[in-house]
Structure formats: C-alpha cells, structure tokens
Amino acid sequence: MQVIFIFAGEFAMCPMPELEKDISGVLITEEQIREKVAELGKQITKDYEGKKLLVISILKGAVVFMSDLIRQIDLDTEIDFMVVSSYGSGTKSTNSLNIRLDLSRPLDGCHVLIAEDVLDSGNTLSKVKNMLLQRQPASLKICAFLDKPSRRTTPIDVDYRGFVIPDEFVVGYGLDYDEKYRNLPYIGILDRRVYE
Ligand code: IMP
Ligand code: MG
C-alpha cells in the first residue's frame, strides 16, 4: 500500500500568481493565522468549559475563519449561518437590518459566539448583536478575526480578537474585494490600483 504524506508547509509555498499580482504585501502569514486561531480556540474551550456552544457566522467573509476556529474548539459545538444586509449608515435601529438568510433554530438558552471576519465601522455587527439578543440566548459573545479600531463609528465590545490591523483594505482568508481573493490563504493588502 502506498502512503502519501501531505505537508501543510508545501501548500503554504504554493504560489497563486493570478491573485497575487494584485497584492501589495502580506500582512498576516498562514503560519501566524494558524497560531492565532489555535490560541483563540484554546481560550474559548477554557472559557466555555462544560457548556454547549453555538458558533454563528455571518456569510460570506467569516466562513474560512469559522471553519478553522471550530476545529480548535474542544467542546460540544454546533454551527449556524446568517446572511444580512445593512441599509444606510446613519440609521440607529435594528429594523434597518435586512435578514436575507436566518438561523435554522431558536436561540433560547444557547451560548452563542459570533465569528466575524473583520470588524470595521461596527455598524452591521452591532445591529446583528442587538437583534440576536432579543432572541434571548443564555450568552452572546463576539470573536473577530481582524479588528480595525481606527474605523469604528459604532462602539461594540469584542470578546475575542485575532489581530488588530491598521486602516488598510485587506483580502484573503475569506475576505473579498468584489467577491474575489477569498481563497488566498493569508491576509494580504490589496494594491490600491485595483480599487482606486
Ligand atoms: P462594518 O463593521 O459594519 O463596517 O462592516 C464590516 C464588513 O465590511 C466586514 O464583514 C467585511 O465584509 C467588510 N470589510 C471591512 N473591511 C474590509 C477589508 O479590509 N477587506 C474586506 N472586507 C472588509
Ligand atoms: Mg464582505
């Protein structure tokens, strides 16, 4: 029988010229991502010991982070998804949040953790949080892989944070520009000529 060994390191070396031509620099490497996600998973496992967890991802950006994160959480864990779009920027109430795909279950009594790709202005996430709190979960926390605090216009508490990053437009690891670059395995800075 032939045994084939696949080393993750080799994939890390795999060049992606089609996507990388638009990347001006690597902000966070695959290795750094792996270490950070393991760290977050360990902390979450410890904090929720003995509890059942429901991890919610807001599609599509957080799907890559979420799928890595749950594999580092040693708890009885379920997952669910939402698709939302936010109307306007100055509106204050949750009814300006349009739910395009709702969760598949009620939240009463659940320990909910929202996995978010990047926290920018905080507008969308604060609306989602308020809306989910009305469904009376046992607890609700937020885990943001990236945080751009300099862009915040709506204050929001983040319970778990991967990396604090500067005000740059980044792509990869689930994050897109015009639906592209989500499959880049690291966080790269998108070259300004692509969008300016
Ligand atoms: P906000 O916090 O309501 O402003 O929205 C955050 C959303 O904006 C994220 O979930 C991303 O979809 C998107 N976003 C913000 N910054 C970036 C970025 O640097 N790259 C890709 N998407 C971004
Ligand atoms: Mg997005």
Overall 3D form:
globular
Helix count, per DSSP? 5
Ligand set: inosinic acid, magnesium ion
Instruction: Summarize the biggest pleated sheet.
Output: 6 strands, mixed
Structural class computed from helices and strand pairing: alpha/beta
Distance between the termini: 55 Å
Q: What is the strand tally?
A: 9
Highest CATH level, the class: Alpha Beta
CATH architecture: 3-Layer(aba) Sandwich
Which range best describes the helical content: under 10%, 10-25%, 25-40%, 40-55%, 55-70% or over 70%?
A: 10-25%
Query: How much of the sequence is in beta strands?
Result: 25-35%
Write the layout of secondary structure elements.
Layout: H1 8-13, H2 17-20, E1 23-28, H3 30-47, E2 52-58, H4 63-70, E3 76-86, E4 97-101, E5 111-119, H5 123-133, E6 139-147, E7 160-164, E8 170-171, E9 187-190
Helix pairs in contact: 3-4
The protein binds inosinic acid and magnesium ion.
The site of magnesium ion has 2 residues, from loops.
